[in-house]
Amino acid sequence: MNTETATLQDKTQTSMSLLRKASELEAEISRLRGFEAAIPELIGKAREKLRKAEEDISSTEGKIQGLKKELREKEGEVSGFKDQIIQRRSKLTDVKTNKEYQALLSEIELLEKKIAANEERQLSIMEELDAMSAGLKEKKKDADAEKQKFEEIKKQKELEKTRLAEAIAEESGKKDEIFSRVDPKLVQQYDRLVVAGKRDAVVAYKFQACQACYGRTTPQEEVLMRRGDGIVICPQCSRFLYWGE
Ligand SMILES: [Zn+2]
Predict the structure, then answer these.
(1) Total structural domains in the chain?
(2) How far away, in angstroms, is 194 Cα from ligand 1 center?
(3) How many helices (H) and strands (E) does the chain have?
(4) The pLDDT of residue 15
(5) Whole-structure pTM value
(6) How far is the CA of 51 from the centre of ligand 1 (A)?
(7) What is the crossing angle of helices 3-92 and 184-195, to 10°?
(8) 112-132 pLDDT per residue, tens
């Protein structure tokens, strides 16, 4: 073997081992990107419990507002009924017949019944309001605890995201450094594969087949691969092939 052939072989072997290393880094970067992409969803899930607790609070507050409104309306109705009773009582002395007198009395009685029923409802509203206000206090305490938990998870996940971004930058830097040592034409070919979705751009040739697509090369190319004597491309998927023993 003369010096020139030896150098060519070294160069090829070096290119292939660099491409393999780049491909490994590519896989690692893709794994890290997957973790990074999952973070917003994880934060969203953690927020869900807090969101439900807040929703529960606002729905209880809405119910409390509704009951307070009803209570004010009931109070207004009672004072209206009381006015009507006063009116009818003042008429009692003016009526001419016993029938009219009895009619006024039964109207007054009916109004008094309405007042009693109304006041009963007011009492039950007030009881409901007491229970709801106590419940609301508990709900707010729980929501505060949920909020604290969520903020902690969020902080932790954001920190994780920063660390992942740093790791991705570091691995990408290593990949760029490797590519700076490889023939630009090979880098271009590699990039084309990655862009086409073939992130595993460098694969083993094993059991007489490309381990990505099971395509086969020629016996001559098998020899080249075995010797590490040339860049062999899969005829079917165009990935770089190395001898996989
Ligand atoms: Zn293939």
Answers:
(1) 1
(2) 14
(3) 4, 4
(4) 87
(5) 0.69
(6) 49
(7) 30
(8) 999 999 999 999 999 999 999
